[in-house]
Amino acid sequence: MSLVSLRNVTKTYPSPDKGGERIVAIDDVSLDIEAGDVYGIIGYSGAGKSTLVRLINALEPVSDGSVIIDGEEISGRPERELRSVRLGIGMIFQQFNLFNAKNVWNNVAYPLRVAGWPKERIAARVDELLDFVGLREKARSYPDQLSGGQKQRVGVARALATEPRILLADEATSALDPETTQEVLALLKRVNTEFGVTIVVITHEMDVIQSIATKVAVMDGGRVIEKGDVFDVFSNPQNASSRRFVSTVIKGIPSPAELAVLQERHIGRIVTISFRDGNADQAAVFLEIVNAGVAFELVYGGINDIQGRAFGHLTLALRGDDTAIDAAIVRIGQSTHVTEVR
Hints:
One of its GO terms (cellular component) is plasma membrane. It is a single chain. By secondary structure, this protein is an alpha/beta fold. The chain folds into 2 domains: 4-88 and 164-247, 3-Layer(aba) Sandwich (Rossmann fold); 256-340, 2-Layer Sandwich (Alpha-Beta Plaits). It has helices at 49-56, 79-87, 104-114, 119-132, 148-160, 178-195, 206-212, 230-235, 240-247, 256-265, 282-291, 322-333; strands spanning 4-13, 23-33, 38-42, 64-69, 72-73, 89-93, 166-170, 198-203, 215-220, 223-229, 269-276, 295-306, 309-319, 337-340. Strands 6-7-8-3-9-10 form a 6-stranded mixed β-sheet, sandwiched between helices. The protein has a 4-stranded antiparallel β-sheet with strand order 2-1-4-5, covered by helices on one side. It has a 4-stranded antiparallel β-sheet with strand order 12-13-11-14. β12 (295-306) and β13 form a beta hairpin. α3 (104-114) packs across α4 (119-132) and α5 (148-160) packs parallel to α6. It is elongated and about 80 Å long. The mean pLDDT is 90.
């Protein structure tokens, strides 16, 4: 059984114009998130990502469909029953949402007081979490005395306070610089591996998904247009919108416009060799080309690694006798896919 299941979920809002058609924010979305997943939900601004998060933690009701958390249908339940559901769902935000008038210790303690934990247990839990996020020495500091990365670590500690099984991270690194982003992502990985917390990462940044997620759903116009293992979606995206996202961090096969530039700048026959999860060894491919008496130049592309699995596309300009080039392409094509573009 999935920890989080969405079944044909739709969310609409009234039109700002009197008598206008309702605005569809989420359109017939079905999704399953298994316990232990780090599940990325990615899309451009306005795709419906943040609305989907608010449906998962019942901050907003669905217009149609079902949201099931740990086997329990939460759609349509009264607010008094949803409070206990939300205790099992932590959330971290883009702008941290800390209480500026409370110090770090009391920010982390706040949800525990709301939940009615005894003082002794609150103290032990807060100290444990501040140790976990590396901020024990900042316990008496206030948010305006912290860096952005430190604020987000406080946000993580606070989100974990009530021992949730699910953590929702809504654009949690968008306000951070690249180095701090990697520190926060490393912390989220620890949350997942050491505490066993299932994490749903909402982002528009493909490199965040590449760094941390095990599965991904791509959203566009309120719909999930592609989903699956991150490696599969990244290495072989099936939807045009997915391909646009992937291209922001991974150079694939050159577009027609890019090919025109390559053809102007480089002499020779241009081919793209595709590598996927060990289907061919790069060194062996290059050696095959050299042994055929063909010179080559790497002109586009790269190889990427997602959790130990490699894939990518290398575009080469081959120079030499046409017969030798043809023979080399045939031999290389026996172990990997070769596309000749000129």
